[in-house]
Amino acid sequence: MSNRTLVKLTASEYCIGFRTVSFRRRSPRTFLVTRSQLEKLEAEGAVIARDIHCFAVFRRNSLAETVTIEFAWLRSEMFKQLVGYEETVTLPYDEFMRFVRESQQEGGPSQWAALSVIDTRRPKLVFYDTAGLHKCVENRQVRKKLVRFLRDHFQWTDADEIGFYRDFVPYSFLFREVCRGKPGIVGGVILHMQDDMKKAYYGLHT
Predict the structure, then answer these.
(1) pLDDT value of position 75
(2) Which residue, 115, 133, 168, sits at the end of a domain?
(3) Rama region for 146: left / alpha / beta (φ>0; ψ in -120 to 50; rest)
(4) What averages of pLDDT result for each successive group of 10 residues across the chain (206 residues)?
């Protein structure tokens, strides 16, 4: 747990406040983000927020269903110099936005805390078929199935990258492994039983 960061959120009528606590340090103050900026994150997938001298960049990863926040904790010292540090945390997006929405309702929660998601060593997943990826992301059922599949597969450590390319089967991809700059395993990630999306599942073919 020493390498994870606790992120504490507090809600007010117009803003959400962020504090971070790690094994090494605590954030020097509360960073305030307006609800309108978080609505922009929901719509556009990224937003830059500023609070006095501090900055935060929010990036939504629709495939992993996470939000990564890059904080720049800065303060002004003598001779108007800015000093501070940078900090990056990743949170589960759906839980984060659920708190944002529910905290605005009467009787809703005013505080929420979560440990940052740990990044594990796994190959870089690169979707060269961006149109196919967007089609998967737009379909909620398919998106969840693809996220779970990618979470549970492609965890061999020799691969530096897994590239995904267009396949003729809808919601499916060809993939190619790259290990130390050389081509490796080639195969397919195929969505089966698409006539009933509730029963549909992804299979790995090599």
Answers:
(1) 76
(2) 115
(3) alpha
(4) 82 95 90 94 89 89 83 76 84 94 93 84 82 90 89 72 92 89 87 91 90
**pTM for this model (two decimals):** 0.61
User: 175: closest CA among 193, 156, 200, 194?
Assistant: 156
Last residue of a domain, one of 49, 82, 115: 115
Domain assignment present for residue 80? The answer is yes
Two tokens, residue 155:
């965890």
Do both 15 and 111 map to the same domain? yes
In a domain, 48, yes or no: yes
Pair of tokens at residue 90: 């990743």
**What pLDDT was estimated at residue 81?**
67
Spatial separation of the C-alpha atoms in residues 192 and 172, rounded to whole Å: 9
Looking at the structure, do residues 147 and 199 belong to the same domain, yes or no? yes
The boundaries of the domain holding residue 135 are 124-205
Count of structural domains within the chain: 2
Q: Domain for residue 170, yes or no?
A: yes
Q: For residue 178, is it within any domain? A: yes
Q: Report the pLDDT value the prediction gives residue 157, as an integer from 0 to 100.
A: 55
